[in-house]
From TrEMBL:
Keywords: Carbohydrate metabolism, Cellulose degradation, Glycosidase, Hydrolase, Polysaccharide degradation. Its EC number is 3.2.1.4. The keyword Hydrolase applies. InterPro entries: 6-blade_b-propeller_TolB-like (IPR011042), 6-hairpin_glycosidase_sf (IPR008928), 6hp_glycosidase-like_sf (IPR012341), Glyco_hydro_9 (IPR001701), Glyco_hydro_9_Asp/Glu_AS (IPR033126), Glyco_hydro_9_His_AS (IPR018221). The keyword tRNA-binding does not apply. It comes from Mytilus coruscus (Sea mussel). It is an enzyme of class 3 (hydrolase). Pfam families: Glyco_hydro_9. This is Endoglucanase. Belongs to the glycosyl hydrolase 9 (cellulase E) family. Residues 119-540 form the Glycoside hydrolase family domain. One of its GO terms (molecular function) is cellulase activity. The active site is at H475, D519, E528.
Amino acid sequence: MTTTMTSVNDWGGRMEGHFRFQITEELNGWECFITFSSPITKINQWMGDEIEHSTDNSVHILVNRRHTGVKKIGDTLDITVQLEYSGTKPTGTAVLKNLGVDTFTVPPLPNNDGTKYNYDEVLEKSILFYAAQRSGKLPADNPIPWRNDSALLDKGQNGEDLTGGWYDAGDNVKFGFPMSATVTILAWGLLEFKDAYFASEELGEMYDCIRWPLEWMLKCHTGKNELYVQVGDGGKDHAFWGRPEDMQMDRPAFKITESNPGSDVAAEYAAAMAVGSMVFKEKDPVFSAKLLTHAKQLYDFAKSYKGIYSTSVPEAAAYYRSVMYEDELSWGGAWLYMATNDSQYLDDAEKNYQTGAAWGQSWDDKNTGNMILLYNITKKDIYKQDLEQTFKNWMPGGTGGDALPYTPKGLAFRLQWGSLRYASNMAFMALLAAEVGMHPSEYRKWAKSQIGYALGDTGRSFVVGFGVNPPSRPHHRGSSCPMMPGPCSDLNKQADAPNPHTLFGALVGGPGQNDQYTDDRNNYINNEVACDYNAGFQSAVAGNKTKEEQQQKYAIIEYEQAQVHIVKHKLPIFINLPKRINLIPLKDSDLGIWDCIITNSQLVFTDCRNNRLIICFEDGSGVRYLPLSWTPNYITEVAINIVAVSSPLDKNIVEMSISKGYIIRKIRTSKECEGLSCYKNKLYAVIGNQIHEINQEGIVTRTIPLPSDNIYYITVDKDKLFYTDYTTLYCCNLDGKVIWLFENEENKYLKGITTDNEGSIYVACHYSNDVIWVSYDGEKHRKFFTKSDGLKYPTGIQYDKRENILLVSNFSDNMAFVFEVKYK
């Protein structure tokens, strides 16, 4: 908005003028840039604070004062100035900037899954919400431009550094009990549905997300039996409406000790650290080990000194009062058992388990989660029965006094305060229960309905910055404040305008029992946000993404199978050919089987002619395919049901889940990629005339030279590298030094290569139409399967060391062969 100065009085060298703005959009803070036609010697005004002026005093920048920043449409903002000048009377213009409208946005992601809601976008934005809740010194890659360093003086009672962590909700207190519970749920979701984070390309962000509070929790554990559980006084904090960066009040820290125990919160910290150690075990072993050490100490503290933390720390009782600690002792014990396999922790978990149907799952109630964990570990009926009864109470049609009411539009309604939190938490629990075999179809359908309610099934979204008609006025201090340098106060809280900053991804509390909801910043019951609100919600979204993609990716094609006689050769092994599989192609389509592997008793083939993976069971049944947007050639098993695939036409290695049917991640390579092998959690890939060793972060850790550009197939085993060219089988160490060579003129165009448990090598010979066995030292060899047995240009070969099964695939006639191998 622009206006010119109206002069009302001029006394020669002194004058009074007015800059009047007719407000056409809600103001939630403003900045005014005033330019005079000539320098002035003095300016007085009462609407704003001058924050800058030019050296010649012709330009002045004002920002509103606390009481002048909020204006409604139709109001007039009158900035009256009294000036002193010399020479010609100045004229003036002013430009008003609305500090209540932030231009920062998060572009919507393409919905590659074709699901009703874009789960990739929900995951991205939910993780951004946690970034907006960060306290302390923010990293250089902070993704939230309106957030800066804050609470840098947070200290313990003896000066301990307690900076970091998350602000709890719409306020700026750091409550350790709900924060640690949030971390446990988020980390569990990452463990269970990691593929969803891979596929959405949010895995790195998710690791950063949960590491931030875990680092703070480690700081809080200042002694073996001493733990800080809160920073900030709730009363003083709630009396201040402003940015966390502007806080000036005292922020005391509160701890539990042997004389003032808190078994509940200590065990919850232990649970979060235990599951965190599992999450980071491979990514950061040092951090993982540190978490596990502290988890063990905190659990011992929780067991040895019993008590409820909100009794020992009454400052927490008005906000997060705990009612018991047994459920956390069971919870912490179960997670420590999962992390350590130490049966003592399982004994503790079962001893402290609370029998009967659970109220729900929340920061204070871990019973539903305990049922799932303990049933998954022990398969005991008691846990299954309690879990089934819990969901009978929660699902529509429940009877008795414990059955939940439902809103007219379908939300399971546990409590008015944060109703979506409880439904989302239980949606996540339902998905986990389905994963351990509990009524999977029914539970998943129900979980999807509850998350659908939050995302927009009723006609509006309850997630800030996502979907149709989302909340724009959440009860949240930082996002309600204008852009800097505008001041922030209760007037900003009371303003009608949307929050200046979009708090992307935050789940608001939710509707009342009759679906009523008002997007009102002053309503902290239905419209506040909180870290624990998003935890079960985000994890359930990851679970929904996993299952929906799995259902969409599979398609069935016909298959054929046949029995043939036992083939026996004079080798140090017996070969049995129980299955000859004909992968009948779709109509008007021939297959081009380039490579193959065995994983989890399933055969997987790359079909380079039709751009897909073909999957079936070892007996040839259940054939299905996964269509791809690129041409697959080489394949290797990375983990059970996880494969890596490459193509000479592409500069990517793609990791995929064949059980869930989607891409986990892509590793960009410097040149076209050919043969692949996985060994000790590292990929080995033929890139040009080198083999690249690639770690789990996608970083090349070693390059191994190759003798020619004609090497395409490789395998790595027992710290040895094997590869083939047209006529030669090479055995090298992992630095590329050749140990031995095998050549035989009868074997033409050596392709696929694999090794068995004894170190013997099997090679598919493409042009001579045979498979040869070579001893571990290269001294002996034998042809044991030939064209007369059905081989026709074989390319793929894979030995499954778990089941002693050898798979061979033809390129041209859609045939594959499964051998059973027995050692003499």
